[in-house]
Amino acid sequence: xxxxxxxxxxxxxxxxxxxxxxxxxxxxxxxxxxxxxxxxxxxxxxxxxxxxxxxxxxxxxxxxxxxxxxxxxxxxxxxxxxxxxxxxxxxxxxxxxxxxxxxxxxxxxxxxxxxxxxxxxxxxxxxxxxxxxxxxxxxxxxxxxxxxxxxxxxxxxxxxxxxxxxxxxxxxxxxxxxxxxxxxxxxxxxxxxxxxxxxxxxxxxxxxxxxxxxxxxxxxxxxxxxxxxxxxxxxxxxxxxxxxxxxxxxxxxxxx
Length: 256
Known about the structure:
Blueprint: E1 2-7, H1 11-25, E2 29-33, H2 44-49, E3 52-57, E4 65-70, E5 75-79, E6 92-97, E7 100-106, H3 116-138, E8 142-147, H4 160-163, H5 171-182, E9 186-187, H6 188-192, E10 201-202, H7 208-211, E11 214-215, E12 218-222, H8 224-227, E13 230-235, E14 251-255
Parallel strand pairs: 1-2, 7-8
Antiparallel strand pairs: 1-14, 2-4, 3-4, 5-6, 6-7, 8-12, 9-12, 10-11, 13-14
Helix pairs in contact: 3-5
């Protein structure tokens, strides 16, 4: 079973690339982020024509997450995170597909920092951690998949110096990520590539793709029950090179 997380940077702008990926890679489950579309604008007809069912949580022009499953429709379990009743950002969607719980999440960027956006990022991470503890208590195979907007380690970026002041690499961001993993989650990509140097994102600016100046911010965290089934994890990097591609590449885990 191949489970993918894919920040598409706009589902409407990137729809040909998404459908192309579904046809060529044939993933079993896909978690999409940054739809940048209201619920009514989600291209469900095209997704279903490609052979996938979907559940989505959209937001006009910003954010938005979805879960796709090949040949079936995911069963929604949870939408949004508790802790801030006034938070209207569409950043978390949790579904179940044949006994596997999968959450698609889009963590706040947090820039500029210091400031309210960075404070919101850290609060959101604490809210995610609370939900993650509840999931672990269920003792089911689960995956927290998405764009975390956190560079966990120095070897997860092309340049520590270039990213030193960015919210993605601040000590507070990294500490919150470490606390989440320490609950008992397995960072699949890190487990399979322990020495780092694997990127999932390349900015559109400054020739980042051409220079391979990327970093790792898309993560798949596995509960112990899912980690027991881990076969492999990687990045379908070539899709970043295609015409009008997202600035993220599909990042995946394969489970027995």
